[in-house]
Structure formats: structure tokens, C-alpha cells
Design goal:
Mean pLDDT: 79
Low-confidence stretches: 1-5
Radius of gyration: 22 Å
Number of helices: 9
Length: about 220
């Protein structure tokens, strides 16, 4: 859909995009392209804080919508790969949007959201987006921490090997020029163990809070009976 300049034409364009985005069976539609088209039409207006907020909200809402779909799928589901691809596409567009308008802090928040999404964080793609953002900001410390987290999360495969080699090069450059890959893997393994301990602690903490709330609710119900 081309750039439309008149107010009526723009309104018509937004209506078309909105109708398309609200249609059922949205998984089978070119959703990412539709979101990009909607945002592109918005940004053809004079960019203001309100316009930027509307575009940011569109990306955020779309990401949530696809995360909900993804979290309900198994790897054997026919739409699994398609949904993952669409979600990664939305994250990439949202990050590029923040970079285009010089909002690196917002971009880092989008990246953190991507790598915190259990549906996609075993893939290297969201981690590479995050690493690229950290490197653009010149944050070696952040980049190092992201590599640790990425290699603790990403499944074995070609992309994982690439991450290992990239991280080894970074560590040799800034930390220890004599570091070996085996030593680095041992460091990451210890990090992974600590992460699992923290996750287990958080799970147990959540269970305690849930039991407390359930007991509190039962006591309130008993007192009113």
C-alpha cells in the first residue's frame, strides 16, 4: 500500500489496516507486514511524541498477541514455526523503530522482552538482536552478560556454535587472551547452574506466596460465612 498524503486517504488506509489486523484466522495472514504498514502510515505523519507512542503501543500489543498464541503451541503444531517467525519479525521491527528514532534505552527494553519470552528464547535470533543493540551502544559489560545468558538458553546447533566463537573472541579481546573454548564452556556451565538454582528458588517462592494467598482467601471466606 503506497504512501497516502490526504487526510481522507490516510484515514481510509488506517481503516483498511485495522480491519485486516482484526480479522479472524490472523495467524495465516501476513500479520507482520500489516503491522509494518500501519506503523509506516502513522510515521508518514509529522512524528510527534503521541505518534511515536501510538506506534510503540501497536508493536507492544501485537507482540503480546503473538506471545499468547505461541505459548499455547507445541513444537508438533503445524503453526509453530510460522508463529515463531512472525513473533521474531515483530520484535525486529519494534527494535528497528526504536533505533530509527534514537531511543536505545527503549530498544534495550524490547530486546529484554524478546529474550525473556520462553517461546523464542531458545533460538539464537532474539539474542543476536540483543547483542547487536548492546554492541551499538558500546556496552562491553552488557554484551558479555548477554552472551552468558544466551549460551545458557540457546539449544545446540549451528547458531549456538557461532555464539560460542563470537563470545570466545570477545573474552580473548577484553578479558583473557589465553582463554580456551573449554574453559569458557566451563564458565558458562557454572553460570547455567546458578541460573537454575535461582529459577528453582523463584518457583518455590511463588508457590509459598500462592499458598499464603489461598489460605488468606479461605480465612476471609470462613469469617464471612
Amino acid at each position: 500500500m503506497g504512501c497516502l498524503h490526504s487526510k481522507d486517504a490516510r484515514n481510509q488506509s488506517f481503516a483498511i489496516y485495522n480491519d485486516a489486523l482484526m480479522m479472524p484466522q490472523f495467524i495465516q495472514r501476513p500479520y507482520v507486514s500489516l503491522v509494518h504498514g500501519w506503523c509506516d502510515q502513522k510515521l508518514h505523519l509529522t512524528p510527534s511524541s503521541q505518534i511515536l507512542s501510538e506506534v510503540r503501543l501497536m508493536y507492544a500489543n501485537s507482540i503480546v498477541k503473538w506471545k499468547v498464541v505461541g505459548n499455547g503451541l507445541q513444537e508438533t503444531d503445524p503453526d509453530y514455526s510460522l508463529v515463531k517467525k512472525q513473533l521474531l519479525g515483530l520484535y525486529k521491527q519494534a527494535i528497528n523503530f526504536e533505533l530509527k528514532f534514537h531511543q536505545p534505552k527503549q530498544g534495550m527494553q524490547v530486546c529484554e522482552s524478546a529474550v525473556s519470552c520462553a517461546f523464542i528464547n531458545e533460538d539464537a535470533a532474539p539474542w543476536k538482536l540483543y547483542l547487536n543493540m548492546a554492541q551499538l551502544r558500546g556496552r562491553e559489560g552488557n554484551t558479555r552478560a548477554i552472551y552468558f545468558r544466551a549460551l545458557a538458553a540457546v539449544k545446540v546447533g549451528k547458531e549456538e556454535s557461532e555464539l560460542w566463537n563470537e563470545f570466545l573472541g570477545l573474552e580473548k579481546k577484553f578479558v583473557n587472551p589465553n582463554l580456551t573454548l573449554d574453559s569458557l564452556k566451563e564458565m558458562v556451565s557454572k553460570f547455567r547452574e546458578q541460573e537454575l538454582i535461582l529459577l528453582d528458588f523463584k518457583r518455590k517462592e511463588d508457590e509459598i506466596v500462592q499458598r499464603f494467598q489461598e489460605n488468606k482467601t479461605r480465612q476471609q471466606h470462613t469469617s464471612t460465612s
